[in-house]
Design brief:
By secondary structure, the chain is α/β, with parallel strands linked by helices. The protein is built from 23 helices and nine strands. β3 and β4 form a beta hairpin. α6 packs parallel to α19.
């Protein structure tokens, strides 16, 4: 029954898969470029994300592949772990950890991260992507490790690469802001694909021109296999000898956590966009993503997640079932088998222009305005997460944002543990909140110490469901001090009212 549903929608899924392929091809190459990884690894991840994850996933309209959100982790990890093969081992282990997440039914994990921290994470990643693509955008070829200065640096900028990058940026903006709204042809043929084609045409027609030509080192470089043996020889494999290294396991857990978060966020977004309002099983999705990352790492691919850019393109193009994601994976496989030489004519500066747009969408200035309007309790974790990611690394940035988020929760708890009402100078009522813990000791003790000697104190417990024993002890100690003074005390609970009770613990 399920297979008949999948194949009965091919008339919708095949056109959608073509659009997704056109979107995915430049992004697979661009994200690999942003990650400092072999460009072929981005294509492998796209194929695995389409075919393997697509088959296992319970999502009907989600599309997986290499994600911009992981580019910062990949770029740092390849250097820190001592090479790409060590990094691939982290991807394999990360996939296994994700698989375990799914088995343990951790599909709710995304709900335990404040939205301000998640937005900060995506924004920080977007900023890093933009920063790292400036060099490729201008075709900058540094004479050394250090930046020589702005005026001198102009001598090392490739005019051809810069020109086609600017043209590509114009095409992308024109397509997304104007042409995509003009007709279905502009939705079927996507702006990134047009930019890539224009870049290839430019490279072909400027060959031999000493000034405007783009050198080979500024072009995409994927291996061109002569036969199937040389094709399979392109794949890299993890270095399993590093499996005992702690830093590899830390990177693996980071990949698993961030990839799972990004996937779960994307699942939530795509389910809302789905015209049929289908619900994706999140635990099954983690199992699918974990399997995909395990296989991708085994054969030299980047880590994969479900990706909102490709998923939304799939939905907008009329994709009905997971077949559109699976077929787009086969299209990617065919492209690296049949047209690798053509792929090698794509300027890196064109991919940089595409990634500029991706980075901008992750870090829109309007998002900063939105977070500001939500108040400082949302803005501060958002900004701290961004600063931590940009100036240290992703894990530290997320950790700083989480810590600040927890501090804000504690401040809220401190402020909202109780309310005070008074009747003149002689009667005070303390109404306790639903949950009162030891975090609230200081604020309650402060209120008790301010009470005048000749007073009447009422404690209203009717709205409280949990009161920490520390709070009970505070009231007991306070009443012990007031025992021989002109002081009245009353407890109001669901069971009734108790005046000057002997045993407080029984009433709380």
């Amino acid at each position: 029954m399920k297979n008949s549903i999948l194949f009965s929608n091919l008339k919708s899924d095949i056109p959608a898969s073509i659009v997704v392929f056109f979107v995915a091809l430049p992004l697979c190459l661009g994200i690999a470029l942003a990650s400092g990884a072999p460009l072929f690894s981005g294509l492998i991840a796209g194929i695995i994300g389409g075919i393997i994850v697509g088959i296992i996933s319970g999502s009907q309209i989600g599309v997986s592949g290499p994600a911009a959100g992981l580019a910062a982790i990949v770029f740092t990890a390849i250097g820190d772990l001592g090479g790409f093969q060590n990094f691939l081992l982290a991807v394999v282990l990360g996939g296994l950890i994700q698989f375990v997440f799914g088995i343990l039914r951790a599909g709710v994990i995304g709900y335990y991260f404040p939205s301000s921290v998640i937005r900060g994470m995506l924004t920080g990643i977007g900023i890093i992507i933009i920063i790292k693509q400036v060099r490729h955008f201008f075709g900058y070829q540094s004479p050394g490790e250090e930046f020589p200065g702005i005026l001198e640096a102009l001598n090392y900028i490739n005019p051809g690469a810069t020109l086609i990058a600017i043209v590509s940026m114009g095409i992308l903006l024109l397509w997304s802001n104007i042409l995509s709204k003009k007709g279905k042809i502009f939705q079927l043929i996507q702006g990134p694909l047009v930019a890539v084609i224009v870049g290839i045409i430019y490279v072909v027609f400027t060959k031999g021109n000493n000034y405007w030509a783009i050198q080979s080192e500024l072009l995409v470089s994927v291996p061109v296999p002569e036969d199937m043996n040389s094709f399979f020889g392109q794949f890299s494999f993890p270095n399993f000898q590093g499996i005992t290294r702690v830093e590899i396991w830390i990177t693996a857990f980071t990949i698993a956590l961030v990839a799972s978060l990004e996937t779960l966020l994307c699942v939530e977004a795509t389910d809302k966009l789905d015209p049929d309002k289908r619900i994706t099983p999140t635990n099954r999705e983690l199992i699918a993503q974990g399997t995909g990352n395990f296989i991708s790492g085994l054969i030299g691919g980047l880590p994969v997640t479900q990706v909102i850019v490709r998923s939304s393109a799939n939905i907008q193009s009329g994709g009905k079932t997971k077949m559109s994601a699976i077929i787009h994976g086969f299209f990617l496989l065919i492209s690296i088998l049949l047209i690798p030489a053509l792929l090698n004519q794509i300027p890196l500066s064109v991919l940089a222009a595409i990634l500029f747009i991706v980075g901008y969408k992750l870090a829109k200035p309007s998002l900063f305005v939105t977070m500001y309007r939500l108040g400082w309790k949302q803005l501060l974790p958002f900004l701290i997460t961004i600063i931590g990611i940009v100036f240290t690394d992703l894990l530290i940035g997320i950790g700083l944002g989480l810590i600040l988020g927890i501090v804000i929760i504690l401040i809220n708890s401190f402020q909202n543990s109780h309310s005070i009402s008074t009747e003149g100078k002689s009667k005070t009522r303390i109404t306790l909140a639903e949950e009162v813990t030891f975090f609230n000791k200081a604020s309650i003790l402060k209120e008790l110490n301010k009470l005048p000697e000749a007073t009447s104190l009422e404690i209203d417990l009717r709205g409280a469901k949990f009161i920490d024993n520390d709070i009970i002890e505070i009231f007991e100690d306070f009443l012990a001090k007031q025992k021989n003074k002109n002081f009245e005390f009353k407890i109001i609970s669901e069971k009734g009212e108790y005046k000057n009770p002997e045993n407080l613990a029984e009433l709380f």
